[in-house]
Target: Cytidylate kinase
Amino acid sequence: MVIAVDGPAASGKGTIARALARHFGLPHMDTGMLYRAVALSMFRFGGDPGNEFEAVRACEGVAQVDPGDPELRSEAVSAIASRISAYPGVRSALLERQRGFAASSDGAVLDGRDIGTVIAPHASAKLFVTASPEVRAQRRVRELLERGMPGHYEDVLIDIRARDERDSHRQAAPLKQASDADLLDTSDMDIDEAIAAAIRLVEARLAHA
Ligand SMILES: Nc1ncnc2c1ncn2[C@@H]1O[C@H](COP(=O)(O)OP(=O)(O)OP(=O)(O)O)[C@@H](O)[C@H]1O
Ligand SMILES: Nc1ccn([C@@H]2O[C@H](COP(=O)(O)O)[C@@H](O)[C@H]2O)c(=O)n1
Model:
């Protein structure tokens, strides 16, 4: 069983995907981390994010990036990840890793932007998790401060809007709700409410499969 969880930045899709993985006993992949790892590699070791060839070359170093590196979540790395993820060459370099994970015999939960549309179009259940940009910016600022990183609400809101615009309007695998995905707007939900709603939606899909 594959569960696809997509949505814009800081909508809570990662929190929900991890909870679904625990609930259904499935492995989880945060696919945004792959794009962030490419971005971090360019940020640290050089490479022009405006150059597709250099970004594709940086994909080779993804496995060497420590998933616990706090810099992966920095705003600088987020902005580069959003830019390089628009390159078709980068997306195809990272495609098999994600499809392979989704095809594991145990099943899987993956979260990202194009899981329900491109990576796992035949997933058993698909959620499109969203929240207003203002709520997402507040959540991201809180998260950054908790991690001891600087986070200014106005800057974060501008960044979230810019990422939404880029992710939704790029040619290659844009962020969009799959036609068979359930929409979950968490703007007025706390984490526990959002997780409970997600589990209900997935269980309803599985019951009708
Ligand atoms: N319903 C909610 N209410 C309040 N805070 C939430 C809610 N869902 C998630 N959060 C918090 O918001 C922050 C962002 O959540 P999360 O990392 O799950 O979002 P995301 O969509 O996966 O983000 P990204 O796309 O940047 O990886 C986290 O600090 C998380 O604890
Ligand atoms: N399936 C995906 C996942 C992520 N991206 C891009 O990576 C950036 C970082 O992702 P987060 O989920 O960690 O915020 C994001 O802004 C996307 O541009 C993607 O394109 N496809």
The chain has one domain: 2-207. The mean pLDDT is 95. Strands lie at 2-6, 28-30, 108-112, 125-130, 182-185.
